Amino acid sequence: MANYDKGDFSKGSVPGAIMRLTIPLFLAQIVAVLYNIVDRIYIGHIEKIGTLALTGVGVTFPLITLITGFTNMCGMGGAPPFSMARGRGDDDTAGEILGNATTLLLIFSALIAAVIFIFKRSLLYAFGASDDTISYAESYITIYVSGIAFSMLGTGLNAFISNQGYSATAMVTTVIGAVTNIFLDPFFIFDRFSVFGASLPGLNMGVSGAALATIISQFISAVWVIAFLIFRAPVKLRISNMLLHFRYVKTILRIGVTPLIFSGTTGVVQILYNSSLQRYGGDIYVAAMTVINSVREMIFMGMHGLTNGAQPVLSYNYGAKDTKRTLKGIRFMTVAGVVYTSVLSIAVVLWPGVVISIFNDSEELMEIAPTVVRLFFSMQVMLSFHSVGQYTFLSLGMSRQSMFFSILRKILVVVPLIFILPLIFPDNAAEAIFGAEPIADVVAGFACFSTMYILVWRKLRAGILPDNGHNDEVG
User: Fold this and answer.
1) pTM for the model
2) pLDDT digits (tens, 9 = 90+) for 363-388
3) DSSP secondary structure string, 178-203?
């Protein structure tokens, strides 16, 4: 156990090492999903305006996805070379990578906040807001962006805690923020709320209150993460390592551009989904997509925990040039991911109404949502193959391959289908748009996993270390 606490993944059972990281991360993902969707649950049940308010918040998703993308670019871009450096026994380089990633997070948080504050109203209309929902969207994103630095530091730097073997501590980061958010939300959102049967007065801030509760929670999480990295972590965050160096920035951005593109393409798809659904179906279909995005977060919380748990183990053993342990990690991630995703996807397809009612049970939404939910999630299991392939490439520093499959699924498959399917099925245009997802899941899932099998799996099985094309760089 001591080896895992120190982030040494070269000994013991590979599945055991992955699960020691995955279980806390999985629990953290459950809490993270609550963190992300609790606002929507409360907002969807605001009396009289719940459906419109939920739709307005859904319109902000592309901007939040953009923020997540730049966060992941620094955190997930720095974590693999950080682990590879530690696998080689080079903690000095690992510390430099951590410091440079921190500085990049601060720079990007300031730049993104400035852009959103300047152009937010125009962006929200372009992303699918209507005159009925723009006020809710604008209120939420204005306050949310005010705390963008807390969000990016807390989430981005948390990867460097789990990558040192402290996945339980990384889990606490998420738990602290989520629990705070869950308790603050009703107080800020409603005029009265109940706690253990007692009716208490609230601030009645509505959507603005939900955003305020979120940034307070993110501030607390960020303080926890930074304090641990400064005082407790084996590789500590030091001011002296925060001066940017080209070689470290280049490595972080080279690997991090893949999760950025993944989030960026997700944002583009969210924009096109919302704008097309607004055109063909109106606010109620945008509300349905908001619910679907929330349900997908719930399904993939475990998959994210698994892939994030496997990444340090794969990166460490790749850095140590251990082909057998790297392959064992990929095999375990594949089997566990497919089984998990299959079970939850089937449950959603069989009982969509139960899941939808968690967010909003208006008669209009319940009439259309079950059909589109079943269609959207019908082939989600193939998305797990796509995730395994992508995270394998990412963990081994093969950024070009990982980047390509991010673009393939969203830009080359989903985007054209969003425009084509309504033309093929004009009588059910809004519903047809949701069919883009299962088609993309099959095409991209097969393409990504089969390519990973050829470029990585077969070589590792033959005892050959796959070349990531950047062995001359850091990590």
Assistant:
1) 0.70
2) 788 888 888 889 999 998 898 999 89
3) HHHHHHHHHHHH-SEEEETTEEEE--
